[in-house]
Amino acid sequence: MRGSNREIRIKEERIRRFLEENNSDGLLISLKYNFAWATGGRYNHVGLITELGPTSLLVTKSNSYVIANSIEAPRIEKEEVGLLGHYELVVFPWYEPDEKLKMVEKITGGNFITDAPFGSAKVVNLFPLRYPLVEEEVERIKALGKSASLCMEEICKSIKPGQTELEIAGMMAENLLSNGMYPSVLLVAGDERISNFRHPIPTENKVSRYAMVVICAMRDGIQVAVTRLVHFGKIDADLRKKHNAVVKVDSVLIHKTKVGKRWSEILEEGIKAYEEVGYPEEWKKHHQGGPTGYQSREFTVNPKTQGSVVKWQPIAWNPSITGTKSEDTILVGEETPEIITPTFDWPMIDVEVDGVIYKRPDILER
């Protein structure tokens, strides 16, 4: 489902307008998520936990080049960009890394900007170029959302008391990878660690009665986020009250997310919802999420965040109340935001906001 030349041309039109605005003759793209965006979902990485890929894309006012060292060039040409017939491949010896800068300067006359530090070029943020998603990206992220959510459900239904968080994380990673997805975020907490830590990286802690699994799944460069909770035995009244409250906050955040709405205004609505459900201080204990897409979060929204929601922007709100959480990925289109990480066989809670019913995932009792 990688992007076509049509998609790539749309991206390059945005880039070339950006070049004009910056009085530059070329943009060098090396960050993994920007490379994936500009090339319609192609990979330039080797290391999974680094942001910088060894292969770069150089877009000028008239041409597009893929600049790779002699190690990466064969794979990049055969498996990533060669079949497109769109890019000129420029190769330099891996043992002469300075040649890359010389090539870029030769092509651009030295007048280029970059998304990551390189030479003396100005570093620029490409977030404003990545959205709105184009039609092919919308199809990809919706398909990804279904795949990621299904993987999550399969693993949550197979968790057993006594398993360590690391074992559960391993099961989740295997399921994602075997279905073509990379886990860019993978958190697992059991029992008291759910209440103690908002970002619980998995440990040797054994799950007894309660587990939380959090993922950001990436395929073809684009990402979605999902959280699900599993409880062994009957849920007590306090946890039931908290979860009913947090899905109400989540539903308010989803409902208030509209094209043109300021990020800070949406957050303010969420903060009011925390107050209305009886937990006015909980929003301060963890960020509430924000736009996703080519990063697990493009940024996390706070009361001072500038800017507004744009059409076809994926967003993952993740409100939490100590001991529970609610998180899915939505896509903002013409009307009501669409939840693109749908459930398949999972208990749901109906939540009403301004006359609209939102179905939010309950805690799975097993």
Please tell me about this protein's structure.
- The protein has 366 residues and is of the alpha+beta class.
- The chain has two domains: 5-130, Creatinase/prolidase N-terminal domain (Creatine Amidinohydrolase, Chain A, domain 1); 135-365, Creatinase/methionine aminopeptidase superfamily (Creatine Amidinohydrolase, Alpha-Beta Complex), CATH 3.90.230.10.
- 34% of the residues lie in helices and 25% in strands.
- It has helices at residues 5-21, 32-38, 73-81, 98-108, 127-130, 135-156, 165-178, 192-196, 237-256, 263-276; strands at 26-31, 52-60, 64-69, 88-92, 112-114, 122-123, 182-190, 210-219, 222-231, 289-291, 313-317, 320-321, 324-325, 330-332, 338-339, 348-353, 356-361, 364-365.
- It has a six-stranded mixed beta sheet, sandwiched between helices.
- Helix 6 (135-156) crosses helix 7 and helix 9 runs antiparallel to helix 10.
- It starts with a helix and ends with a strand.
Distance between the termini: 36 Å
CA-atom Rg in angstroms: 22 Å
Number of domains: 2
**Total of helices:** 10
Structural class by helix and strand composition: alpha+beta
Could you report the average pLDDT, rounded to the nearest whole number? 97
Secondary-structure blueprint:
Layout: H1 5-21, E1 26-31, H2 32-38, E2 52-60, E3 64-69, H3 73-81, E4 88-92, H4 98-108, E5 112-114, E6 122-123, H5 127-130, H6 135-156, H7 165-178, E7 182-190, H8 192-196, E8 210-219, E9 222-231, H9 237-256, H10 263-276, E10 289-291, E11 313-317, E12 320-321, E13 324-325, E14 330-332, E15 338-339, E16 348-353, E17 356-361, E18 364-365
Parallel strand pairs: 1-5, 3-4, 5-6, 9-18
Antiparallel strand pairs: 1-2, 2-3, 7-8, 8-9, 10-11, 11-14, 12-13, 14-15, 16-17
